[in-house]
Amino acid sequence: MDALFFIQLFIVLACIGIGGRYGGMGLGAGGGLGVAILVLGFGLKPSAPSITAMLIIICVIGAVSVLQAAGGLDYLVRVAEKLLRKKPQAITFVAPILTSIFTLFCGTTYVAFSLYPVVAEVAAEAKVRPERALSATVIAASVAVAASPMSAATAGMLAILHEYAGISLGQILTIALPSFFMAAIVTSFSVYKRGKELEDDPEFQRRVAAGEYEFMHTEQKKEFVASAGAKKGVVIFAIGVVLVLILGSFTELLPSWDGKRLSTPMVIQMVMLTAALFIMIVSKVPSSTLNSGSVFRAGLMGVVAILGVSWMTATFFDAYQPELIKVFGGIVNDAPMLFGVVVFLFSLVIMSPAATVAAIMPLGVTLGIPAPFLIAIFACTCGDFIIPGANQIGCVAFDRTGTTKIGRFVVNHSYIRPGFVMVISQVIFAYLIAQVVL
């Protein structure tokens, strides 16, 4: 590889790093700049962005946005809150699993983020150190997108692996789901006795003595009454998810033409758009609210990010495909876990599992890494916990007891231990399961 390769690699990394500072839209714009430089400046042939993945994301985000407009997501938050309050002493184990289930169902951490304040208060009321429950919950909910049939990250993996090795959605989930739940339990155990008990914590004692902390009284908690439309919307969306799982797992049920069966990505698009329409009609969702929710805005920025990043990285990797295979092919085949480390490190910069999948997983395909192993390292796309983001920082504020912290060196925060435990254990479990089922 000559100097030109490293110059162009630096440009790719610089565009990701600079764009990533401005969120999803910035990533997409940075990717667009990178493509322009590579193509117009260096004469590289432009590759195609991940259109299939983006179409799936658009359809899923559309359905979830309609569900949010119908009040369905708020209804799910209240259901989860009631369940959390039933077992307050077990909050360190219950909260990560419960919030993750809602993330798995919706494909977004919106519901989980709405539950973080509840987790903090329930833990404090039960005299459980909130740091334990919050740190495990935030990590589990964020990594859950790498096991959700509805997430943008899974959509990207499906699009790549379906074309590469004919992998179905059911095969991905057969590995991702059980490994995720086992890793979540291991993560909860890793923080179960972390730190001093709440009543012995010096910071908590100081806040109580200074009058900075008071337990919430029952009358302070507002009662939420879900509308009939919200409940119907959740049911319709759930039916759509079940249909996606069935048709994505049993592809023999799908029609075929000239010996070629209807692809799973197209099935997801059809089902999600259909579900969105039925939610609009049955739940009587006002058209003015459909594109104003947080899910729609975040999803749109995610699509832009994947467009720019996948387009730029595909252009770069395709241009140097023979050289990459020659130099790294043997190394990766001898020690494939090194590729997992590469994916994890890239996720630190890209700060988005879906964008990481779009940017790096095609390189794994280029290097000939087996599909089962690529599924096993799926969780490595969730390394964005190293540098505290909105969820981590928000939970520091939600924890009024002061036990959840961001350290003076930034990276020495409450989420480091559960983050590494979650990702590493899930990769190990997924690898073992993949050896059996694929």
Describe the structure.
With 438 residues, the chain is mainly α. The chain has one domain. Helix content is 71%, strand content 1%. It contains 19 helices and two strands. It has helices spanning 3-20, 23-41, 51-69, 72-86, 91-106, 110-125, 130-143, 152-165, 169-191, 202-209, 228-249, 264-283, 294-319, 321-334, 337-350, 353-366, 371-376, 390-398, 416-437, and strands at residues 256-257, 260-261. Strands 1-2 form a two-stranded antiparallel ribbon. The radius of gyration is 22 Å and the shape is globular. One of its GO terms (cellular component) is plasma membrane. Belongs to the DcuA/DcuB transporter (TC 2.A.13.1) family. It holds the Pfam family DcuA_DcuB. This is C4-dicarboxylate transporter. It comes from Citrobacter braakii.
Describe the largest sheet.
Answer: 2 strands, antiparallel
Total number of helical segments? 19
**Uncertain segments of ≥5 residues (pLDDT<50)?**
none
Order of neighbouring strands in the sheet with most strands: 1-2
Provide mean pLDDT, rounded. 87
Number of extended strands = 2
Q: For the CA atoms, what is the radius of gyration?
A: 22 Å
What is this structure, in a nutshell?
GO terms for molecular function: C4-dicarboxylate transmembrane transporter activity. The protein has helices at residues 3-20, 23-41, 51-69, 72-86, 91-106, 110-125, 130-143, 152-165, 169-191, 202-209, 228-249, 264-283, 294-319, 321-334, 337-350, 353-366, 371-376, 390-398, 416-437; strands at 256-257, 260-261. Helix 3 (51-69) runs antiparallel to helix 8 (152-165) and helix 9 packs antiparallel against helix 19 (416-437).
